[in-house]
Recover the amino acids of this structure.
């Protein structure tokens, strides 16, 4: 087992159903841990049963702990923009609703600055044929999802996902 780095950072990203986003992020170089959950809404202590109605303002999200010596926030965001479609408002694949929107929840002013820079670069790159609609908003309380959602596609390899990594250059 590797020793935990002395300084880690947290990123919180939403890009549709959290199962697929987490599965692609959890083994990415520099990622230490991932947790799926709900954030971005006003209801304290939400559960999947209420989140799936799309009425809480929360998004299915992944909270990522990463080692900034191995993975910069900039690089993490570039990967994020390749693993989901950031041009579809409140939708990923067959999943439709505000809970499936694309969001970068920044934890620091530096993350905010980097998020805007990367989003603009991705948008101007032309890799995606429509404008990027990803929101960039302050991090809010993160509520871990129920245990059966954690590492769902690792536990259920044939489970549903609409996420895959595109070979885009930004």
């Amino acid at each position: 087992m590797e020793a935990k780095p002395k300084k880690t950072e947290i990123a919180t990203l939403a890009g549709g159903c959290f199962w697929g986003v987490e599965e692609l992020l959890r083994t990415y170089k520099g990622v230490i841990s991932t947790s799926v959950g709900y954030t971005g809404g006003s209801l304290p202590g939400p559960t999947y049963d209420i989140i799936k109605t799309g009425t809480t303002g929360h998004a299915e999200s992944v909270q990522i702990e990463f080692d900034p010596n191995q993975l910069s926030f900039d690089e993490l965001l570039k990967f994020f923009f390749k693993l989901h479609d950031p041009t579809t408002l409140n939708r990923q694949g067959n999943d439709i609703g505000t809970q499936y929107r694309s969001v970068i929840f920044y934890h620091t002013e530096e993350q905010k600055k980097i998020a805007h820079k990367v989003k603009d670069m991705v948008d101007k790159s032309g890799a995606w044929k429509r404008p990027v609609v990803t929101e960039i908003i302050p991090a809010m309380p993160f509520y871990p999802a129920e245990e059966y959602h954690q590492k769902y596609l690792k536990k259920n390899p044939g489970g549903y996902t609409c996420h895959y990594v595109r070979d885009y250059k930004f």
In short: The first strand starts at residue 9 and ends at 15. The chain is about 25% helix and 25% strand. The helical segments are 18-25, 48-51, 73-83, 109-125, 152-155. Strands lie at 9-15, 31-39, 59-66, 91-92, 95-96, 102-106, 135-138, 143-144.
